[in-house]
């Protein structure tokens, strides 16, 4: 049974091992592949990533504190049949002390050039799973909830009084990964 | 430092992922940028403030050998009483526009219809380049940036691209920075390097405080 968190709803996570799973079906029609990307920003008290390595995406699959691991890029959605195609695993016991928040986003690579949005991608979802029990904590159907968008802020893990909580954001944008990155990283972005 | 969102990070200059081949007999490396408008406000405009400042950006290429060094630093010459260093060596820049081999040169302001929009162009005959050259580093610096207080924090929409001899754009990288580039007067934009019998192209986006390539050269001597 999935609990579909409402936008803004919060839930205690404690110190468990969790993962964020992104799944979608390959493009069976003509045209470009659908290339969805799951990424995470490990943000400090200044609301930025303390170093480039704390941005976890297809180009950097492991955080320096080894708390986050990205299973790697799936450029088509063909990694699994019906399951997660990209996963970011989180071990909250290992998170660097400077990190107060971990933000998860999903974007469509080259959505502009390929003229794509989530509405075109079949069975696309992003979900949060408690790895200890296999329970789905939160899930968004991207095609249903964000049909005309190309970037979604899924939710954030944040620390309150030493405990981790998850807040579902569910905010869609017609933006790319560079847009999210520029919010939390003040250096140069190569696209 | 920079975060590169380009998948694959490096681009094969000889053929693209569709298997189409490019003609590398001469490749144009084009660099471009805009300078952010400083708005002087209403009064500023009234008194002629807010006028766009002139930025003089220079493109420089270092030819590196397989040790990652500039082997030939050229010579010092006197040109009509003006003293010039690095003349006719493995550094292509405003005082030494053409490499002695004739296989890489800076066009200056010679604009043709092709590649319009590039502020600076460096043309390389990649196929003809001596095998001893393993890598080409493309650098941009702001002329007299330190004394004029001009820096990459004020530069917008910077890009570097590679165009083959038939005018096909092989690769293009956009570099967008922001205020963290305040005070940075030079930038290592990109590199082209030999790999497995082909040429690869990679964006770098490393900023430097200095406005002179001579300081950047220290690492490559």
TrEMBL record, chain A:
Report if keyword Aminoacyl-tRNA synthetase is assigned. no
Has UniProt tagged this entry with the keyword Chloroplast?
no
Q: Which InterPro entries match?
A: Stress/Tellurium_Resist, TerD
Lineage: superkingdom: Bacteria
Domain (TerD) spans 1-184
Region (Disordered) spans which residues?
A: 66-85
Q: Which UniProt keywords apply?
A: Tellurium resistance
Q: Which CDD domains does this one have? A: TerD_like
Designated name of the protein? TerD family protein
TrEMBL record, chain B:
Traced from the root, the source organism's taxonomic lineage reads: Bacteria, Pseudomonadati, Bacteroidota, Sphingobacteriia, Sphingobacteriales
Give the protein name, as stated in the record.
TerD family protein
Does this UniProt record's set of keywords contain Membrane?
no
Q: Would you identify the family this protein belongs to, as annotated? A: Belongs to the CAPAB/TerDEXZ family.
Ranges for the TerD domain? 1-220
PANTHER family assigned: CAMP-BINDING PROTEIN 1-RELATED, GENERAL STRESS PROTEIN 16U
Query: What is the top-level taxon of the source organism?
Result: Bacteria
Q: Which organism is it from?
A: Mucilaginibacter jinjuensis
Alphabetically list the UniProt keywords: Tellurium resistance
């Amino acid at each position: 049974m999935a609990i579909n968190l409402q936008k803004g709803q919060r839930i205690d996570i404690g110190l468990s091992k969790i993962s964020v799973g992104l799944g979608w079906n390959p493009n069976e029609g003509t045209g470009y592949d659908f290339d969805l990307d799951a990424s995470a920003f490990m943000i400090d008290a200044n609301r930025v990533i303390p170093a480039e390595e704390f941005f976890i995406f297809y180009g950097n699959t492991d955080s320096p504190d080894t708390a986050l691991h990205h299973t790697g890029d799936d450029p088509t959605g063909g990694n699994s049949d019906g399951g997660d195609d990209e996963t970011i695993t989180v071990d909250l016991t290992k998170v660097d002390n400077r990190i107060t928040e971990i933000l998860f986003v999903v974007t469509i690579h080259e959505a502009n050039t390929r003229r794509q949005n989530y509405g075109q991608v079949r069975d696309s979802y992003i979900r949060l799973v408690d790895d200890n029990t296999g329970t789905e904590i939160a899930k968004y159907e991207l095609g249903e909830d964000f049909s005309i968008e190309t970037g979604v802020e899924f939710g954030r893990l944040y620390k309150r009084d030493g405990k981790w909580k998850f807040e579902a954001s569910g905010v869609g944008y017609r933006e790319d990964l560079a847009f999210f990155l520029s919010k939390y990283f003040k250096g140069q972005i190569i696209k | 430092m920079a975060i590169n969102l380009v998948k694959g990070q490096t681009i094969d200059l000889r053929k693209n992922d569709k298997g189409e081949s490019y003609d590398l007999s001469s490749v144009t490396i084009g660099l471009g940028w805009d300078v952010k408008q400083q708005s002087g406000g209403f009064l500023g405009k009234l008194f002629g403030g807010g006028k766009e400042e002139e930025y003089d950006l220079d493109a420089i290429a270092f030819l590196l050998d397989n040790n990652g060094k500039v082997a030939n630093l050229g010579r010092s010459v006197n040109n009509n009483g003006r003293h010039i260093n690095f003349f006719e060596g493995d550094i292509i820049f405003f005082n030494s526009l053409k490499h002695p081999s004739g296989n890489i040169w800076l066009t200056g302001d010679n604009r043709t219809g092709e590649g319009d929009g590039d502020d600076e162009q460096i043309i390389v005959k990649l196929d003809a380049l001596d095998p001893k050259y393993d890598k080409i580093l493309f650098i941009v610096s702001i002329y007299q940036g330190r004394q004029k207080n001009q820096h990459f924090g004020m530069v917008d929409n910077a890009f570097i691209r590679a165009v083959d001899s038939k005018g096909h754009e092989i690769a293009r990288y956009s570099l967008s920075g922001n205020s963290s580039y305040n005070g940075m007067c030079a930038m290592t934009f990109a590199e082209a390097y030999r790999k497995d019998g082909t040429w690869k192209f990679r964006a770098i986006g490393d900023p430097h405080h200095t406005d002179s390539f001579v300081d950047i050269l220290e690492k490559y001597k």
